[in-house]
Design brief:
mainly alpha, 4 helices, 2 strands, elongated, membrane, MS_channel, ion transport, cell membrane, Large-conductance mechanosensitive channel
Length: 136
Amino acid sequence: MLKGFKDFLMRGNVIDLAVAVVMGTAFVAIVTAFTNGIVNPLLAIFGGNGDRSLGFRLVSDKPATYVEVGDIITACINFALIAAVLYFVLVMPYTHAKNRWGKVSEATKTELELLAEIRDLLERNGSSEPPASMRR
């Protein structure tokens, strides 16, 4: 029962999906800040008012055209912090555990490793030519 759970976790899909969901959520914060900080003030040129934090005003006599750079910077910092925490708390330990305890499957072998195996098999069979089925 625990072996099945371990295999499920080591499959990689669970961690990748969790990281993707959290990163997607953090990215939504950046997009929301961009919309609230830049797009909305650009649209507010045509009406509305209000003055906020770090930023600049596009039209001096219309407070609603205030571009909120502070919100965008905050969202970017939040995104970078979330990405760093996810990497150092989830991804790095998972990769270390997978390298230490995970099995290397045939599918993860590199082309060089596969070519070396083919070469070794041909040498063992006493032939330097590929089998007829592999010749063109």
